[in-house]
Design brief:
The complex is a heterodimer of chains A (113) and B (111). Chain A is mainly β and 113 residues long. Chain A is built from no helices and 12 strands. In chain B, strand 9 and strand 10 form a beta hairpin. Classes of the chains: A mainly beta (113), B mainly beta (111). Chains A and B meet through strand 5 and strand 6 of A and strand 5, strand 9 and strand 10 of B.
């Protein structure tokens, strides 16, 4: 069935460290892929997206590349900041009139000053 | 900018009460969703709607119902609130070819 598997947290890093949060998906066809971020006490915000194979989504220094051959969409940032502390969700969607968005379980990231 | 607005940020209700959570979006989106979020369980889909008066059960519909009388508004109803429904509730909407946009969430406590 359709599912998303992402790295379990919590992940704790020091400021300026390199970040990778792994995400793989199981889906038929060619879904669009997303990373959402949830800051404390808030709803989810779209961080970045990619709609076809080999697309790279990027925003706020974060990047993720749609890898069809490995069905992966790993989130990376070269130098994290304290303000990046949040929960990150990987998700996918096959666009149609009534598609559900499939979310991973979320990865909590904490950055130490 | 797309705006999805949930009527309350925080709610405290008593066991057995009927509870209404309201969500309004301003971008004429066809699809609307209600999720609950619990520690360690991620986001779980309760119900979604792909058109006015149309609804489908998600993964955990028990104890909930929904109403979509107008395109912009999607209501989640807890018929008889119980303590195990204490959670963060998130509403989302999207058009056919866009990503989902989320409201700010409603933290519901049932005492």
């Amino acid at each position: 069935g359709n599912s998303v598997t992402q790295m379990e947290g919590p992940v704790t890093l020091s400021e300026e460290a390199f970040l990778t949060i792994n995400c793989t998906y199981t889906a038929t066809g060619y879904p669009s892929l997303f990373w959402y971020v949830q800051y404390p006490g808030e709803g989810l915000q779209l961080l970045l997206k990619a709609t076809k194979a080999d697309d790279k989504g990027s925003n706020k220094g974060f990047e993720a590349t749609y890898r069809k051959e490995t069905t992966s969409f790993h989130l990376e940032k070269g130098s994290v900041q304290v303000s990046d502390s949040a929960v990150y969700f990987c998700a996918f969607l096959r666009y149609s009139s009534a598609s559900k968005i499939i979310f991973g379980s979320g990865t909590r990231l904490s950055i130490r000053p | 900018d797309v705006k999805v607005t949930q009527s309350s940020r925080y709610l405290v209700k008593r066991t057995g009460e009927k509870v209404f959570l309201e969500c309004v979006q301003d971008m004429d989106h066809e699809n609307m969703f209600w999720y609950r979020q619990d520690p360690g369980l991620g986001l779980r889909l309760i119900y979604f709607s792909y058109d006015v008066k149309m609804k489908e059960k998600g993964d955990i519909p028990e104890g909930y119902s929904v109403s979509r009388e107008k395109k912009e508004r999607f209501s989640l109803i807890l018929e008889s609130a119980s303590t195990n429904q204490t959670s963060m509730y998130l509403c989302a909407s999207r058009a056919r070819d866009t990503e989902a946009f989320f409201g700010q969430g409603t933290r519901l406590t049932v005492v």
